[in-house]
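Troubleshooting log. The previous run stalled partway through. Resubmitting the same two chains, unchanged.
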Amino acid sequence: MTTRLAVIAPGAMGSAVARELVGRGAQVLTVIDSRSERSTLRARDAGMIAADLSDLPGCDLILSIVPPDAAIGLAQMLAPVLRQSPTKPAFIDFNAINPATMQDVSAALSGTGCDVLDGAIIGLPPQQGRDGPTFYISGDPDGRADVLASFGLKLRQIDGPVGAASALKMVYAGINKGLVALGTAMFLASERAGCAQALSQQMSESLPNLRGQLMHAIPDMYGKAYRWVPEMREITAFLGENDPASGIFDAASQIFASIAKDADRTLIAALDRVLSQTDSGDLAP
Amino acid sequence: MTTRLAVIAPGAMGSAVARELVGRGAQVLTVIDSRSERSTLRARDAGMIAADLSDLPGCDLILSIVPPDAAIGLAQMLAPVLRQSPTKPAFIDFNAINPATMQDVSAALSGTGCDVLDGAIIGLPPQQGRDGPTFYISGDPDGRADVLASFGLKLRQIDGPVGAASALKMVYAGINKGLVALGTAMFLASERAGCAQALSQQMSESLPNLRGQLMHAIPDMYGKAYRWVPEMREITAFLGENDPASGIFDAASQIFASIAKDADRTLIAALDRVLSQTDSGDLAP
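Second attempt completed without errors. Output:
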């Protein structure tokens, strides 16, 4: 019997995941917003099957892969359909939401009779020629998500309740993207203060790996900064006001916002000047 | 003619620097607070010569190497002595102070007739068996500090005004210690949220260098956290209220303060649990 999965929505990540699953023989349904030509094309390209909401309860799993602010809405939209259905797919929320928001997703689906699992995707969308992301699951004592591993996804169960996978996404993104915010701010400050060349040289000597990572990650951030602003806010909310570290992510969201609205590319030009510093400074004789 | 230098004070860094200079044949004077037996011993051990304030104007260079909050006071104390002296040593402030504080140091010494140079020391104190720190200088168009290179110090002139070397110290420490604050906060959050093992494994795979650096730098911070609190505040002041990144260092100072006053080692025990996570998690079948 063919395994039938649903992936909503066919965004960059969702469609790339669907292509992997289809390639290994799964049927993958999706619900397409016909107003978005791009989504329609991506879904077709990935071999996804356009379906109605009422088709979804017939799937084994429903994967929610949407922007963070759409996670609760999707759960609320599906709840009545799942409640009325005799078949009960497991619902996995794979979104970059904080554990409290994940509890809201769970609550929206309570009374449907469906298992609600917490998921997190760490890494870039699957693509030919690079390692795919890792799919973390928590709150799945019966291993209902394990079927995804048989379709080639790198799946890892976290021995923890619903919320642990969402928390993992928060702390991992906090380190990875928080570092980019920190580097961005310090590189800009070094430019303003006239010590960018010295900083570059000193880092080459004493922090070469960190410098290499920032040299790659900062330019890669320019085009994503607008998406990272709400993600940093999710981390701020995750930590809560009583954790002083929430201030790091409040600052990070502002730093990424300043890059996102850097329309005349003043900041980006300054960063590029720092990133292009070579290590030609000589020691005094 | 023997080169005569002054290094004030004989703290951990000052005395280690003096030992290097003495070892290469310089005479190194210092002023010892006789109330501190430890300083007296360190100075003697480094081959420094105990001197009075009135002896200092006879030196070629005076190196100020004191805690950040003592930098202005030392300059103010030396000012009358230097003003009245016919010989005019250059004064180098090597302290971890922000550029505005460095301007205050300069102002305290204006009218003395002495050149005031801005310095920054990046790295651990010189010690047998490891690379010494790098000594950065700005505001030294005549190369008056270059004599330090001839006594074995790794000296680098920054082509910038007084303030540029202090700024370099701020941005370098901002990246290096800001990362430790970020890692500390996220590791603690992962422990609270039950995803420390998964975080450790994910970082081993996708951020191995960063993980390695944090595994080393976080335990190394425990005993220094109390000193890093004021250093983070200097960086906050350096960036200023209008730079959102100042919030990162306001948070970092609070994070280090929480470690510094972690008397029952609750936080340190939690961090040690995260740091001791092995990468034994298996992928689902």
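Takeaways: Chain A touches chain B through 74 residues (CB under 8 Å). Residues 4-161 of chain A form a domain with the Rossmann fold fold (CATH 3.40.50.720).
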